[in-house]
Amino acid sequence: MTNDATRSIGLLFSGGLDSTLEAVERLKEYDAVHLLSFNNGCCVNMNGARQRAGELRRIFGATRIHHAEVDTAPLRRKLLYDSEGRLWRYKSPLVFDLACKMAAVIELIFHARTHGLSRIADGASIDQTQVFLQHPEMSAHIRPLFEQYGVEMVKPVLFHISREEKIKRLEGLGFESGSGLLEKLHITSQIMHQPFCLYGFVTFFFTSPLRHVPLIKRMSLPMEQAQEAWDEVLPVACRELDERLARHP
Known about the structure:
The chain is of the alpha/beta class. Helix content is 47%, strand content 12%. The protein has ten helices and seven strands.
């Protein structure tokens, strides 16, 4: 295990509004921040996160910002297709999201353990009930996995302020804030600064008012089944993690 800084923290980083401001806030209390951007194999515009990380280096210093793009596609595919089809038996397209989440968590723990990080901050997600992976019950169900490997997942900050205030803070620090016109049209102005998952077009149906349509509702993944599916494939993910940690010097 290496230790890149005496006081460092890992941060899930899309390059969007929330994760960029989360990085700014964490730099007030930590010497360095490791920005981790994930690509599940269906992402476009990964360059957006790179550019935003570059802005952070320019403003706060290159030695304080470490940016890594983590390829979660191999593990995501393994969880979906090489685990005896456990996930697909739930007959919901949301198992793709669950596999993506588990792959990201495993890669996150691996990076933390191999870079001497004991704390990880989530720069975007906050417990809520609309997205099943961010539901408080699911968050509580996942948390023991971090604890098992000695990593603490800390809650994000700055969710109590408005989006407009966040944009003003970015502008005040010298960041490119994006298109004001898009904001007026209720389209995120950060669209050029962060990766976008093409599979998001599918999961959109389960987070929009369309989720109440009977056909879509039948293809959802109730909380009890989501937790059951997580537990079924978790041993596959943990074996992968343990093997990789054992091989790492």
